[in-house]
Amino acid sequence: MVNKDQLVGEQLPLGIALRDDCILDTFYPGDNHEVLEQIKLISQGKGEQFIYLWGRLGVGRTHLLQGACNDATRRGLAAVYLPLSSLIEHDPSKLVEGLERLGLVCLDDIDVICGKASWEEAIFYLFNRLRTANHRLLVASNGPPSTLSLKLADLQSRLAWGVTYQIQALDDDQLLAALQLRAKQRGLELSHEVGVFLIRRAARSMPQLYKILEKLDKASLAAQRRLTVPFVKSVLEI
Description:
A 5-stranded parallel beta sheet has the order 2-3-4-1-5, with helices on both faces. Helix 1 (33-42) packs parallel to helix 2 and helix 7 (172-185) packs across helix 9. It is elongated, with a radius of gyration of 19 Å. By secondary structure, it is α/β, with parallel strands linked by helices. The chain is built from 10 helices and 5 strands; from the N terminus they run H-E-H-E-H-H-E-H-E-H-E-H-H-H-H. The protein is 45% helix and 11% strand. Residues 1-15 have low confidence and may be disordered. Helix 5 (117-133) links the parallel strand 3 (104-108) and strand 4. It starts with 32 loop residues before the first helix and ends with a helix. The protein has 2 domains: 7-166, P-loop containing nucleotide triphosphate hydrolases (Rossmann fold); 172-236, Helicase, Ruva Protein, domain 3.
């Protein structure tokens, strides 16, 4: 998301939008308290200049990046979120042109550019421009910098410069707490019994659990029913 006052926003394709519910206050940290605090600082234009996040699918990398952009924008700090896996077919030089003028740039799925010379070069020079401008960069990937098969050695070294955090997956108790937090924010009452039922029968991934919760929320409103195990079974057809 780019501040409307920033001309670079006109160069971005596809109208990249941020999820309204991806804010840092809705991220349940579990064992990731330190990284959450650092992301909160970076969204204020403070703290580390460059942070590299990594972890397996579903641990909340995208939530943190979009949350940082949402929070930064709310504070009046120009920010952009770029999901590189969705933008890989675009011209990288045009895509990143002028982004160093923004206070925060968030690059998701950095691993998809590996082996693509034009992309590696574009990100390398963007990194340098952001560093010169003293603006902040937040990058996410499925593995640490050392595992990226980049052809441009200088970019590989740049990505190892910053602070690196592995996003730890939530255990079952933490998943339940995170699911209950999201339910509360939607105005739903999610009992311990129903929460445990969902976690045991769904993929242990917050994005998938949130999608299920959204479906249950709509069904609950339509039927004017509270969430019980029998009602959940009927909605999910299990």
